Amino acid sequence: MLLSSYSFIFFFIILFFTYYLLGKTSKIQNLFLLIGSYVFYCSWSLDFIMLLILSTLITYFIGNKIKKSENSAKVNWMRLGVFLVLIQLFYFKYFNFFIENFNNVLRLVGLKDQLSLLKIILPIGISFYSFRMIGYLLDIRNNKLKEIPTLLDYSVFIAFFPCIIAGPIDKSGLFLNNLKEKREFSSSQFTDGLRQILWGLFKKLVVADNIATITGPLFESYHTLNGSALFIGAALYFIQLYSDFSGYTDMAMGISKLLGIKIQSNFNYPLFAQNVADYWRRWHISLTSWLTEYVFTPLSIKFRDYDRYGVIIAIIINFLVVGFWHGAEWHYIFHGLVSGIMFIPLIWKGKMNKKIKGSNNIIPTKDEVKNIPINFVLFTLLMVLFFVKDMDMAINYYKGIFSLSFFQLPNFPLQKEIILLILLMLVIEWIGRDKEYGIKEMFVEDNGLIRWSFYYVLVFLVFLFYIAPKGFIYAQF
Predict the structure, then answer these.
(1) What is the spatial distance between Cα 60 and Cα 81, in angstroms, rounded to a whole number?
(2) pLDDT higher than 80, residue 112
């Protein structure tokens, strides 16, 4: 049941009216949210609903133990909880990866006895809800939660349906605060939510899904294409991934607003970033902030005696985790490794934590004109390590880009209307880049004719360019 599907609209309408008309108290509303979230999850992964419920119960029990324990017992309970979450994540997502690489080592030393791979199906959303569970346990251990939530509220936090498939990975304290009081219907919040859903649908259905009609065939026949076509393909995929993932996030945030719940934003216009650090402060914010708090910061403290070298070690480990989180494939791990290495010049110059203050003018500054294209090219090249099937494809793809054929005209057809749609999205987001999402305040203060004409144009484009439903890219993680 995709957020952009008709079945989801039907499901959400029923939940919405039940939630506000029959939800007389916060507990009843939270119960409806939990039931709805489990129904939504079952529509994706009926086989693994019990795994989600069981891991929720276990981590909630351990969280209570952490809260009630003292000193070493508190730490031991926390370690047990994190271990149990990681061991289930390891089994479903990484077990075959290690078996496969162990077999490769055996082959290198001439041994024939090999371990068999298991037929393991990856539970949908396991990477996202596992990090929610771990963050919750660590927050209790670090006394960041003043009180233990009810089992009902905690279950909603873990399974909240707009977020369980592809995030964001909300912090426990901020999300649980939403559930304490009864949510009243707000017309202004309802309008804002619908507006953000519309923008998310445009980015996903109009931009991302139509770019996929180009990148899909391009990657299948990449070995026949010249360097310029391969580079354009990587650039298009970069925009596709952003439109797909941020479109999902906009829909998730808009749906949450309709229910009176605020969740964390995951994107802050990363295509307009001006350097590596600026990009990662804007891209997949909930994951990078989670890892900064729970991985990078503890490591940087541990390695502080090594000065800049310690920061470099911490950042590279942090981004190796980013790569490994995405999947049990070497190209993801190298994607994380290269991402960390890209920070070294900034760390060496002491500029890693220096935030870039961009302008809010429509006309970009000289620095923006220079830095944004350079940064886009760098991350376009890095994106190759994200979309390839394996490292062999990555090596061959890079060989193709960095060849003399890069200076030839691309030998792959591009649809002009898709390029125009990409430009439309980028222009709208550039104009509204200081807002929560691109069209949040666009034409809001103008007369109704202009505002509603703009919305109707977006709706018309959604229906005009709608193609067969495609899943969200990050749902596979």
Answers:
(1) 9
(2) no
